[in-house]
Amino acid sequence: xxxxxxxxxxxxxxxxxxxxxxxxxxxxxxxxxxxxxxxxxxxxxxxxxxxxxxxxxxxxxxxxxxxxxxxxxxxxxxxxxxxxxxxxxxxxxxxxxxxxxxxxxxxxxxxxxxxxxxxxxxxxxxxxxxxxxxxxxx
Length: 138
Description:
By secondary structure, this protein is mainly alpha-helical. Helix content is 85%, strand content 0%. The protein contains four helices and no strands. Helix 1 (2-42) runs antiparallel to helix 2, helix 1 (2-42) packs parallel to helix 3 (73-98) and helix 3 packs antiparallel against helix 4 (107-132). The protein starts with a helix and ends in a 6-residue tail after the last helix.
């Protein structure tokens, strides 16, 4: 009984850490995409700009990979939606940067898609908080 309680506490602690890092890194990736779009509009992308975006993308990828092994289905569904949306925006941004957008892709459509990720992040965070028993509503 004591061991079961300890395991449950360790599991919750592991999820709390994972969720905190995933939330942070997904938000940073979203912010990096926004910044990159601004840089593309204002002055053109330099190597350092691409490096910042890649770092944010890689950090998010690593956190998402961890969550896939830890998070229950309800949280994973929300995290997966965020991951897919971020990767879609990233693809749009990189194609625009190369001057080879797909039909219908513009700076405006990429910026709108990036903006829409914020609501998905809120939904993901709410699912995480609910799983941890922090709140039932957010």
